[in-house]
Amino acid sequence: MNTGDTAWLLASTTLVLFMTVPGLAIYYGGLVRAKNVLSVVMHCFSIVAVVGVLWMMIGYSLSFGDSFFGLIGNLEHAFLWNIRADTLRGSIPEMLFVMFQLTFAIITPAVMVGCYVERAKYPAVIILSALWLLLVYAPVCHWVWSDGGWLKQMGVMDFAGGLVVHASAGVAALVIVKHVGNRRGFPYELQPPHNPGLIATGVGMLWVGWFGFNGGSFLTADGNAAMSLASTHFAACSASVIWGALDWLRYRKPSLLGTVTGVIAGLSAVTPAAGYVGPLGAFILGAAGSAVCFFTVTIIKIKLNLDDTLDVFCIHGLGGITGTLLAAFVSAAALGGTGVSVASGSMLEQFGVQALAVAATAAWTAIMTFIIVKATDWMVGGIRVDLEDELAGLDLATHGERGYDL
User: Per 3-state DSSP, what percentage of the chain is helix, strand, and coil (rounded to 5)?
Assistant: First the structure.
């Protein structure tokens, strides 16, 4: 065991959990109307607990157990009974790897909360998140990150979750929104986010936590981790500048919401490539991801009339997909990258692998999410709350508590 690697991954694991609670909970809480703040926070905390239980029981084993034809892991690690304090995975304790990967499994369904806020029943949120973890997240995670996974064997580049986290959550969001439907009054009668200060606070927590998200994914405390951390930061900076500038041009005033939204878009875009790019490549990824996400928000909400309330698909989904596809090019040594993209062939060949991985992830996610949504809908008698509860707000109607003071 390497104590330096272990210490850094202990810190990274803490940072990534911090991204969900309280980071994502506060970020999403600021974006919704005041009468639904508590419900969003409740969703995030409940997902942390439910996913933790399932990850211990079978989630980790399905994701990282010995591969079954490259598709899914076996149950050798069910209940983690054979992982002890002295069991190592490389230079770190395997139990620490279990916990680090758990934080990724937590934040993915938590990100999806943003697509159905203000109108989903609490039992539906729990059932949907649990089924989705086992039927979507675990298989895709195994394909991409497990040594025996079929996409890993093909050489796909997804350093820290462009596919596993962001693309899968984004595609699932569109399927869920199509089924659940739009909020009452969408898109012209809705109020803006009730608390931009909370939004900025949450994004700040996510930005800091992302250093563990990407910086910890090498599982080492060395120059590679430092480069990944730097790339993460520069992508966020360039994306924030681009989104903030575009927002300023469109609305004639610089907005806090636009500036911090760009940060999330850039972080999502750099995530799949953070371990392969240098600062210049990260800068390009952040700018490209921010521009793509900015211009698609209007298309999804206005042109397609889909109430992806907190822009899960546009910001996370398209950010992750953009970064995954561009990773084949921006990781070139000429841009300060590791040259991984040309190690086994040309950039175009690597791009083909990336595109195949995106298509496979999107297709599997869409099909399985559709099935999960239908099953959840049947089990709870409809995912959506009654109109009376939606108008009253979920804080009081569902939880009997008031979250207005937030």
Answer: 75, 0, 25
